[in-house]
Amino acid sequence: MERIDRRSAEQLRHYTIHRHFQKYPAGSVLIEMGNTKVICAATVEDRVPFFLKGTGEGWVTAEYSLLPSATGVRTQREAVRGKQSGRTQEIERLIGRSLRSVVDTKAIGERTIMIDCDVIQADGGTRTASITGAFVALVEACSTFYEKGNIFPVKDFVSAISVGISHENEPILDLCYEEDSQAIVDMNVVMTGDGRFVEVQGTGEGRPFSHEEMVELLRLGEKGCRELISYQKDILGGQLVWLVGREG
Amino acid sequence: MERIDRRSAEQLRHYTIHRHFQKYPAGSVLIEMGNTKVICAATVEDRVPFFLKGTGEGWVTAEYSLLPSATGVRTQREAVRGKQSGRTQEIERLIGRSLRSVVDTKAIGERTIMIDCDVIQADGGTRTASITGAFVALVEACSTFYEKGNIFPVKDFVSAISVGISHENEPILDLCYEEDSQAIVDMNVVMTGDGRFVEVQGTGEGRPFSHEEMVELLRLGEKGCRELISYQKDILGGQLVWLVGREG
Amino acid sequence: MERIDRRSAEQLRHYTIHRHFQKYPAGSVLIEMGNTKVICAATVEDRVPFFLKGTGEGWVTAEYSLLPSATGVRTQREAVRGKQSGRTQEIERLIGRSLRSVVDTKAIGERTIMIDCDVIQADGGTRTASITGAFVALVEACSTFYEKGNIFPVKDFVSAISVGISHENEPILDLCYEEDSQAIVDMNVVMTGDGRFVEVQGTGEGRPFSHEEMVELLRLGEKGCRELISYQKDILGGQLVWLVGREG
Amino acid sequence: MERIDRRSAEQLRHYTIHRHFQKYPAGSVLIEMGNTKVICAATVEDRVPFFLKGTGEGWVTAEYSLLPSATGVRTQREAVRGKQSGRTQEIERLIGRSLRSVVDTKAIGERTIMIDCDVIQADGGTRTASITGAFVALVEACSTFYEKGNIFPVKDFVSAISVGISHENEPILDLCYEEDSQAIVDMNVVMTGDGRFVEVQGTGEGRPFSHEEMVELLRLGEKGCRELISYQKDILGGQLVWLVGREG
Amino acid sequence: MERIDRRSAEQLRHYTIHRHFQKYPAGSVLIEMGNTKVICAATVEDRVPFFLKGTGEGWVTAEYSLLPSATGVRTQREAVRGKQSGRTQEIERLIGRSLRSVVDTKAIGERTIMIDCDVIQADGGTRTASITGAFVALVEACSTFYEKGNIFPVKDFVSAISVGISHENEPILDLCYEEDSQAIVDMNVVMTGDGRFVEVQGTGEGRPFSHEEMVELLRLGEKGCRELISYQKDILGGQLVWLVGREG
Amino acid sequence: MERIDRRSAEQLRHYTIHRHFQKYPAGSVLIEMGNTKVICAATVEDRVPFFLKGTGEGWVTAEYSLLPSATGVRTQREAVRGKQSGRTQEIERLIGRSLRSVVDTKAIGERTIMIDCDVIQADGGTRTASITGAFVALVEACSTFYEKGNIFPVKDFVSAISVGISHENEPILDLCYEEDSQAIVDMNVVMTGDGRFVEVQGTGEGRPFSHEEMVELLRLGEKGCRELISYQKDILGGQLVWLVGREG
């Protein structure tokens, strides 16, 4: 089998994470996975949602948006429509849950870390790229208020990737938009540094899928996530990698 | 291990589906799973979304809502807030996708089948109960316009159930609200009559989960879905069961 | 004259009130008036609107909604439209005013009683059925926090019914949907246990109506309300009936 | 009994209707009832609502708004809040129904007459003043497209007034704001030129009201409406009065 | 050149300001510039926006609206559309900035002065008429809480006028709607009593404009503003004029 | 005088325009003016607004948005607030008018060119940078459908810059955020290739400004716009520059 962009079935697209992308946020990266490009920013705010006031605990939450010009056919601006779509909110909830799964909210203190994922160019896998990139921005942001001797708020690494079964019935890793739109099965896998799952969301778009296919897709997803976590470590560098999981 | 309501780990709650629950819609059932009660109605409309006009194809879509009085603490009415929550839209998209996975949209003709899932009482598992009940209403509705000799629009059975890992680290089937709010891992499984998956959505709420746990949860989910499909057949009766999957 | 459903002009439809219909709210009934079915729930909340804070007084307010599947032609969900219709708000204001007319807000204390009227099936007279049913849920709810020796917050009974002048120019009681849509004059009457009016809202849909017709319609409305209050007493039972109007 | 402004119980406030108040609309008046001042404009548009397209019939609909500066305490602008209140919509529906009760929608042809009632100063009775004034603007507007020999779209006169039972238990006519806010019973009466009712909306604000009180309030309302219709005739002048009720 | 209404190029339309136009607000005028008529009201509220709480400073802000019946073709009500248009908000911001430029917010104390400009009839120049009229209402309102010996919150006069280049390439003052809709260049000038500019907003509608044209338009605008300030003084009368600019 | 970033009073910040920034839109640039960075994209759509249907004419319109992470203090996402702010709409109207001033809408044919200006980083002058960058994207987009021998839809160059009077009373060119927030007078100037003005918007933030200051600011603005137009020509290159103003 040859894929659209000549990759093998188990190969990720070319990826880079560009750190310190913006001037103002505490953490900010540009992640590229092939033609998919997402700005992930992490802002630290000295307030928490109502249900956490006075508990000493913090919060991590995410927002996601597509630039109208990011897609093949221009996407209507949600601020003009007057509301976020269901798809947008579903993605925001997924990003938030994924990051919180490796965060010690007590160690954040009464702060909210706002994650903004703004897609500059969309060619499939924007939600998983958002998670992978946002993790790096999150570590950057936590390092700005971390004081030595304390627990570092980020306990483990987390990355995400899409897998699927192609229209030619082959399991493939990291689908681009064209592959995704033809795929029979589509799955997003979010994994931590210790090789366990945070989220598995599989959908049979064209037909249901068997237990065996499920297991094969999980294997592919694990492979992709592991490679991305390894890259996150390269990009963060020894000093920040050393902080992740610090217990004091 | 003994569960809150004395069930075994692999046991479903008491369930019933009450057919012809409302007077006006083409299909209408009340499904009860323990204390969870959902009215599922299917209305046939002679119009299709914009992107299907003139194609001869139909559509199935779903809406979901909680009565304010359905929950332990009263839920604010979404019509008063002025918009549906992200959670509501995520559930609506799941129900719609699950039903469409067993529907031949060409066989519907240029019609839309609106599925309304209105939760009268919520004690965990409302989205999976909605799918299981809505399937029965969908078959009822399709039978109202089906003409002998044609393909019946519903190709296979579909049911759904929640599974999870309890706070005592045990895999359990069909979580009630109290179990769900304490669960470490929470998963929804949607399965067809031929034993394949339509959707698998697993989330590590308390901690990530391993490959082995994933496999065990899938097994439990399959068991629950199979039992519910068997009950759907009892409830629909031979004449309607015979229609499902008819190819002319 | 024979009516659509063979009733006489002055006869109510078959009615029932089913108490303790839901598990969670302090009060909850299902009221049926012919094919019209409404769930009326009363929830007690330990907060009051802004203008009552610190006064020691409480509040009663109502919300009303139709399930989309409740009507002959499916009704669009207001949460999807993003706002409540004028009709919905008008009905909510009527239900709230009617109940408050028999409530001693001081005796409630700084609590809000939220009345939710959710119409499961609509065949005319949903607003009046809501008032009649909500009254029972309200008494149930007040009894949950009432302490002996105090004033009971509900001072008198209240019920409601529709009357009208049919397209055959006959005054009729308790119109079903088909009668209502053809009626020349349509009137809602809300009455207390002592036989006085709380609300009278009459509209000449087809033509104006004379002073004599007005008086005749009032007489019919009184008859209907009286019968319903008598039934409310049966349903509530001696113990709760004894509380209504208690002054300590 | 002496009223706040020295009127007798059965006396209207000083009233005037100023015709041709604005330059652009087909009909436009300023009505004053004491300190209550409302601009009522009628615009003719060559389109009808969806449900009337192709029927040859027309429509009359009304919108109502308070200038923020019209009330003792400034009222928040509904365009800023982003929606109309329930009260506003209830009033708009009342004005629309009242005017349509004297209109032959077939004689309008496929046109919509938009009635705009904008309250410049509010001192009680704004909805009834709106109806009384809007009637004059409506006749003006219909005369702009009326062609001799046809049926004139306005079949009869219509006016409206508020009545009530004061806090001193006296039935009174045409309540100003201060009287209205203290009234025990509040009623709006809309009457046609032939002395029949279009709308009767009575509410027991402070206590329920008896059958006898109801009858007395109707009598007062009729008296007020009759006087206002007589004034409408003066203001319209012979030529326009002659048109009302013309059948060709 | 002769203008539509026979004015000379440098002549204002007939203008009047009618003081004490409404009963309730602290300041209220009706300003007429030809057929353009605007009610400008100033309400004093004992609260300030969030960012001024506890500073002892006050605020002046403005809202603007067109009655639907104010324009040649009826304008849709913004409360019905559910939001203010961009044009409305742009005008509100302009009015607010213009008035604040002559206000000492410290001298207001912790109060907000709400300016409501409601256009009764629109024939061009509604935003500039709003500023000119609102200034008078603002002075009236400030005089209601001003205590002798203090700084008066209004430091100088301010007025506004439109200028433009006509479709016949002539610079003209105070454009009516018809002139405005054909103008090649359109400019609004806001000027203070000492002859300096607060706002200059020029737009080349039909073509760009040269430096020389810009200078000529500024000259015309100054002329118009000066005449209006002179009239504001006449209308306010000696006692209030004396207050403007008082420093104790 | 030395400015914050050591520029002279009449010096622009370092600027670049990066062409072909995104993959999908017909035109797309990244413009940087100092730390201000804006993505300007131009999409060609085969539809026109309602008022142009069937006229053969096209339209140019603009949307503007700040990424939440673009500003020193995070900006709330407008899609979450549910509406665009007044400031956003005012900027969108300015960008649209400025571009249309150099566009021959007939030469566009029945197409809409959507301009999206998304600010990645905001350090003052985002609206003027948007105009200057959007012009280049617009030319790129028009060249994609332009056919030789026709009129090219873009008739002249257009650029924009901010000028102001600093808190030290000096006229300065191209204000960064810190300068802007302290400026006494703030002005935006939009100019065409032939040296004429399209828009001049000056506001006295701290105090009114004199005729002489106005003239000096216009001179500075002209200087800045000229330099940017010269750079637009460099960036577009001979082939595209040659098209601008082509008449066939």
From TrEMBL, chains A, B, C, D, E, F:
Pfam families: RNase_PH (PF01138), RNase_PH_C (PF03725)
E.C. designation(s): 2.7.7.56
Exoribonuclease phosphorolytic domain mapped to chain residues: 11-141, 156-223
Keyword Transferase found: yes
Keywords: Nucleotidyltransferase, RNA-binding, rRNA processing, Transferase, tRNA processing, tRNA-binding
Catalytic activity, as annotated: tRNA(n+1) + phosphate = tRNA(n) + a ribonucleoside 5'-diphosphate
PROSITE patterns: RIBONUCLEASE_PH
Binding locations of phosphate: R87, G125, T126, R127
Keyword Transferase: yes
Domain of life (superkingdom): Bacteria
Main enzyme class: transferase
InterPro entries tied to this protein: ExoRNase_PH_dom1 (IPR001247), ExoRNase_PH_dom2 (IPR015847), ExoRNase_PH_dom2_sf (IPR036345), PNPase/RNase_PH_dom_sf (IPR027408), Ribosomal_Su5_D2-typ_SF (IPR020568), RNase_PH (IPR050080), RNase_PH_bac-type (IPR002381), RNase_PH_CS (IPR018336)
Any one GO MF annotation of this record: 3'-5'-RNA exonuclease activity
Gene Ontology terms: biological process: rRNA 3'-end processing; rRNA catabolic process; tRNA processing
Protein function: Phosphorolytic 3'-5' exoribonuclease that plays an important role in tRNA 3'-end maturation. Removes nucleotide residues following the 3'-CCA terminus of tRNAs; can also add nucleotides to the ends of RNA molecules by using nucleoside diphosphates as substrates, but this may not be physiologically important. Probably plays a role in initiation of 16S rRNA degradation (leading to ribosome degradation) during starvation.
Protein family membership: Belongs to the RNase PH family.
Oligomer and partners: Homohexameric ring arranged as a trimer of dimers.
Protein name as it appears in the record: Ribonuclease PH
Protein's organism: Selenomonas ruminis
